[in-house]
Specification:
Blueprint lengths: L8 E7 L44 H9 L7 E7 L30 H20 L4 E5 L5 E6 L1 H9 L3 E6 L1 E4 L51 E6 L38 E6 L2 H7 L16 H10 L7 E2 L2 E2 L11 E6 L5 E3 H14 L3 E4 L1 E3 L9 H11 L3 E5 L18 E7 L4 E6 L4 E5 L10 E5 L20 H4 L3 E5 L3 H10 L4 E5 L15 E4 L2 H13 L5 E6 L11 E2 L19 E4 L3 E4 L10 E4 L2 H18 L5 H10 L10 H4 L6 H4 L4 E2 L4 H8 L14 E7 L4 E9 L5 E9 L3 E6 L2 E4 L4 E10 L8 E8 L4 E11 L16 E3 L3 E3 L5 E2 L1 E4 L3 E2 L1 E8 L14 E8 L3 E9 L6 E8 L2 E6 L8 E5 L4 E11 L4 E12 L7 E4 L3 E2 L5 E7 L6 E11 L2 E12 L4
Parallel strand pairs: 1-14, 7-11, 7-13, 8-11, 13-15, 15-16, 16-25, 19-20, 20-21, 21-22, 29-36, 37-54
Antiparallel strand pairs: 1-6, 2-4, 2-5, 3-4, 6-12, 9-10, 16-24, 17-18, 17-23, 19-23, 26-27, 28-30, 30-34, 31-33, 31-35, 32-34, 35-36, 38-52, 39-51, 40-53, 41-53, 42-49, 43-48, 44-47, 44-49, 45-46, 45-48, 50-52, 53-54
Helix pairs in contact: 5-11, 6-7, 11-12
Length: about 1000
């Protein structure tokens, strides 16, 4: 799944002491299949425990960094941040050294006399610190970060952390993509060229036929002319037609063209204004680059070329991929120039090398940076070395766009969440649908970018039934299928390596491939040069799989391009893989900032890693980020006086709602609207001092930052919260803006003054007060505030989560962490300070019912209508505290899964593959009809015997009496224990109760409390 698995570089983070560099094996393994005893053996709990970060530590960022790394003194690669400021943020103060930080509206000049003098001072200080600890410096930084990287012993780490000239010593992290290394070129495709050798004419497609570059419009601010976008990524393929224009370097450009393997000075033709690569830390730790990589700025995977051309590629009139024409393609800012900073090797890199790339980009004079790199489950801490480097870049006037990440299945897993970075989620802007019509008339709408046969139905066969299971026929692995069994047929395959599967079917004479995902994936497509339809949802997988089981010899299917639009809510809509907010690391920061096109984006790639193609379709927030980078280049060219904060605000306050959601936790401010952003009227941006203070705080809270959003992640809902925002008129005329609030049900939000009148260039501060009314506790309520003028409007998103007893730094996805507890040792963590009075419903027993059902397919896929599934309905009345459903079986050879639905909406799934003791629940459920589906994924025999237990706990129910022991007063953020004991024996079985708390008349929902009794204790 090199590209299918969403090629945004989602990074696995490990310390430098445990990372393995220098070999291809360092990359995490891709998915594998075949040889299993059943069809699908993998499963998950779908539960992630995350810390809430609510503690506060004195001493600022150094104290936090040192505390977090106190136990991390093992030998390895480290980043050492020195105490003095780098060039970008030095405001003077040292004797004989003038200020180097640029004034507002000015740009950093690293060639000026003050900059040269201060750089010399930093060099001397660094040398002194290194010498004192007997350290050999690997790479040094002075522009956007002051410090160095080095391989350190335990003793050197300790010595440096004790040095007052050092701000922080952080173990360097190896970052890596979970996708496999680039595949070998397709037969006949060009290999990586030797130094100075061009393998085919610029602009040639994979068939070798040159395409004529498109005719760009008149260069100007609206096309990004004069701007340089720095792309930190996997390098660039300079021969692409998207970069085939000679252009003069801007007058203030100070970068260079670094030659290396297969990269010569002529490759920097002006469109590519500069190119550099950074591997010092990688080589110092691992000794060599991974197999298949080359030590130069040349891209051998395609990711960096794709992001660069998305941001600023030249217009191409009709891109051809494998002989098919896909129409015109252009970068967002086609007249902007590109500066390349290769920091990843085989999809991996050290943060120490990334900082070197940031440092160089700022010194070279870029106006915009694109950073399509993120961490696998989001940021792990605030104010990382990379984050600090981006802060200093921002202070020097550089706008930074970065990908939000592709972990939409896990809420709150946001990458690049620093408030000075514009964090970009992905949106679907093209349907690219395809319809699979099964022989029984069932229609499944998936996606395809390939030409499909259409017409009458044709035979279909499941890969498992057409080859060797031991060789992975269920996934249609290469070499697993029997040509005689698939010739002329459509082959259905479980998701694995789709390119390998398509090649296997094509080589063996199959007519087409339908891919289904048994665990549910994401709606993305690739181009296979073979008829392929991808069905992305678990529900579709179950429908198709069970149809195939019912028709092992006579399955039929027809495939056609197009669909009914059901694969997405509408256009544009938030891509299901796009990481959702809020930021789990810091309070008061709202992420993502906005969304941009990021699904099925066709742009230039490296033919060396893309089957010889010069263009290809990728999906991911990696593709959305450069869209925003290109837009920022246009805004900076149009408004040279605008700061990065002004640009960010203009993009966010003018964004529009996506289709299907207005939830800012998913869409941020909404979908980018570049046309409106060029004339936003109002902007809201933080000051440099605010951002610096945030960066120096151990556990920062950004709610008071003057950002174009309000995020109250864990606030005390028993009292109002007040924040301020400063509005600045960047328009050309005096204008009056009137505020209005939308959404935020159950919250009372006021803006004072309600209207403001601003002359051009002037600012006024408004006060926003948020009070909880009837809004739920411990859940997010979202909406927006809009300032409407005669000619402009500005909207900011608002998300508020009143903290009752359960702090949780991620979204509300149906699982209520901290709500399920054992009566013998329950706990609560209140978000308020004051008296506490508790009550309980007492205990109600779980109702137990025994069932038998015929077994379905061993190792099958869940489908509500299939054999091997038992359906049980429940009616949940109004004012219910919770519903709990559980399964058990005495058969050790049976594995059960449990799904709880309300109508056709999944409420909770419990599908652990190692146990049948599954539990599904919903706290404070909506009233209505609920359905539990018990699925025997692995039946132990022809008949499956099991028990289903359930409890519906009324919020005002009166059950078997219980004694609640709890503190009479509490303090915000502390953890308190409570117990709930039955007043008399309950009898055998499992029992549930509900607790509720009251502080000064305010009622706060408590816990669902469990006990099990076999005798009175």
């Amino acid at each position: 799944m090199r590209r299918l698995a969403i090629p945004t570089l989602v990074l696995a983070l490990v310390t430098g002491t445990t990372g393995v560099a220098g070999s291809a094996s360092a990359a995490p393994a891709g998915p594998s299949g075949g040889g299993s005893t059943g069809y699908f053996t993998a499963g998950s709990d779908k539960k992630v425990t995350l810390t809430d970060g609510a503690d506060r530590r004195p001493g600022g960022r150094k104290a936090a960094d040192q505390q977090a790394a106190a136990d991390d003194t093992r030998p390895g690669m480290y980043i050492v941040e020195l105490a003095e400021e780098p060039l970008t943020s030095y405001a003077g103060g040292s004797a004989g050294l003038a200020r180097t930080r640029p004034q507002a509206g000015d740009r950093l000049d690293v060639t000026s006399a003050p900059a040269r003098a201060y750089r010399g001072h930093l060099d001397a200080q660094r040398s002194a610190v290194a010498a004192a600890a007997k350290v050999q410096v690997t790479a040094s930084y002075t522009t956007a970060f002051n410090g160095f990287s080095a391989k350190l012993t335990t003793q050197q780490v300790t010595a440096l952390r004790a040095d007052k000239r050092v701000r922080a010593v952080t173990a360097s992290r190896a970052l890596g993509t979970p996708t496999p290394p680039p595949t070998a070129p397709a037969p006949g495709a060009p290999a990586t060229p030797a130094p100075g050798e061009l393998e085919q004419p610029a602009g040639a497609d994979s068939a070798g036929k040159p395409d004529k570059p498109g005719k760009p419009g008149k260069p100007g601010p609206g096309t990004g002319a004069g701007m340089v976008i720095g792309v930190l990524d996997t390098g660039i393929w300079p021969e692409s037609a998207s970069f085939a224009r000679k252009m003069p370097a801007p007058a203030n450009w100070r970068g260079t063209c670094q030659i290396g393997v297969a990269f010569v000075a002529e490759h920097c033709n002006g469109k590519i204004v500069g190119a550099r690569y950074f591997a010092d830390s990688w080589l110092a730790y691992g000794g060599t680059v991974p197999d298949g990589e080359i030590l130069s700025a040349r891209d051998v995977s395609g990711h960096g070329t794709h992001t660069a051309s998305t941001a600023a590629g030249l217009p191409q009139p009709n891109v051809t991929i494998d002989g098919r024409r896909f129409g015109p393609v252009s970068g967002v800012a086609p007249d902007a120039q590109i500066a390349v900073y290769k920091v990843l090797w085989g999809g991996m890199g050290y943060d120490a090398d990334i900082i070197a790339g940031i440092d160089a980009a700022v010194a070279d004079g870029v106006q915009v940076i694109n950073f399509s790199i993120g961490s696998q489950l989001g940021d792990w801490e605030a104010n990382t070395p990379i984050g600090i480097a981006f802060l200093n870049a921002t202070l020097a006037g550089v706008f930074v766009a970065a990908s939000a990440g592709n972990t939409g299945i896990v809420s709150g897993a946001i990458s690049n969440a620093a408030p000075w970075v514009t964090t970009v989620g992905a949106a679907v802007t093209k349907l690219d649908e395809a319809t699979v019509k099964l022989g029984d008339g069932t229609k499944l709408v998936g996606g395809s970018l390939d030409a499909l046969p259409g017409g009458d139905s044709r035979p279909m066969v499941f890969g498992e039934q057409a080859g060797s299971p031991d060789l992975g026929a269920v996934y249609c692995e290469p070499g697993s299928l029997d040509p005689a069994k698939i010739k002329g047929k459509v082959v259905a395959c479980a998701l694995s390596d789709m390119f390998g599967s398509a090649a296997e079917i094509k080589a063996k004479g199959g007519a087409a491939m339908v891919v289904f995902d048994p665990v549910g994936n994401y709606r993305i497509n690739s181009i296979f040069n073979f008829p392929v339809v991808y069905l992305p949802t678990e529900k579709q997988a179950g429908t198709l799989f069970n149809y195939l089981m019912r028709h092992p010899t006579d399955a039929k299917v027809s495939l056609r391009s197009g669909g009914d639009g059901s694969s997405v809510p509408g256009l544009p809509s938030v891509a299901d893989f796009s990481s959702t907010g809020p930021d789990k690391v810091t309070l008061g920061v709202f992420k993502p900032d906005l969304v941009a096109p990021g699904s099925n984006i066709i742009a230039a790639v490296s033919p060396a890693g893309n089957f010889g193609r010069n263009y290809d379709a990728y999906s991911g927030t990696s593709m959305a980020s450069p869209y925003v980078a290109g837009a920022a280049a246009i805004l900076r060219a149009t408004h040279p006086e605008w700061s990065p904060g002004t640009v960010a605000s203009a993009l966010r306050t003018t964004a529009t709602d996506t289709v299907g959601t207005s939830d800012p936790l998913e869409q941020g401010s909404g979908f980018i609207n570049l046309a409106k952003a060029t004339d936003p009227g109002l902007v809201i941006q933080p000051t440099a001092a605010e951002l610096v203070t945030f960066s120096e705080t151990a556990q920062p809270d950004g709610k008071e930052l003057n950002l174009p959003a309000v995020s109250l992640r864990e606030y005390d809902g028993t009292r109002p919260v007040t924040v301020t925002r400063t509005l600045t008129n960047v328009g050309k005329a005096k204008e009056t803006y009137r505020s209005s609030v939308s959404g935020l049900p159950g919250m009372k939000v006021t803006v004072s003054p309600a209207s403001v009148t601003l002359e051009p260039g002037t600012s006024k501060t408004v006060t926003i007060t948020v009070r909880r009314g009837s809004a739920p506790w411990d859940r997010y309520v979202t909406g927006s505030i809009t300032w409407q003028g005669k000619a402009h409007s500005a909207r900011i998103p608002v998300a508020a989560r009143p903290w009752g007893i359960s702090p949780r730094p991620y979204a509300d996805d149906g699982e209520e962490f901290g709500r399920m507890t054992n009566g013998a040792f329950g706990s609560l963590q209140p978000g308020f300070t004051g008296p506490l009075v508790g009550r309980s419903t007492g205990y109600t027993p779980m109702q137990r019912t025994s069932y038998s059902m015929p077994a379905g397919v061993y190792g099958g896929v869940f489908d509500p209508t299939a054999t091997g599934v038992k359906t049980v309905d429940f009616t949940v009345p109004a004012n219910t505290a919770g519903i709990v459903v559980e399964t058990t079986t005495d058969d050790p050879n049976t594995n059960l899964d449990l799904y709880l639905y309300k109508g056709d909406k999944l409420v909770y799934s419990s599908d652990r593959y190692w146990t049948s003791a599954e539990q599904a629940y919903k706290f404070l459920p909506e009233p209505g009809r609920y359905t539990a589906y018990v699925f025997a994924q692995y039946p132990g025999g022809p008949v499956v015997d099991f028990a289903l237990k359930h409890a519906i706990i009324g919020r005002n129910g009166t059950y078997a009496g219980a004694t609640l022991e709890a503190p009479t007063s509490v303090e915000r953020g502390l953890t308190y224990g409570f117990t709930l004991k039955p007043k008399k024996p309950l009898g055998d079985g499992d029992f549930w109760a509900y607790t509720e708390w009251n502080t000064n008349g305010t009622v706060i929902p408590g816990n669902l409390v469990y006990t099990q009794q076999s005798s009175w204790e």
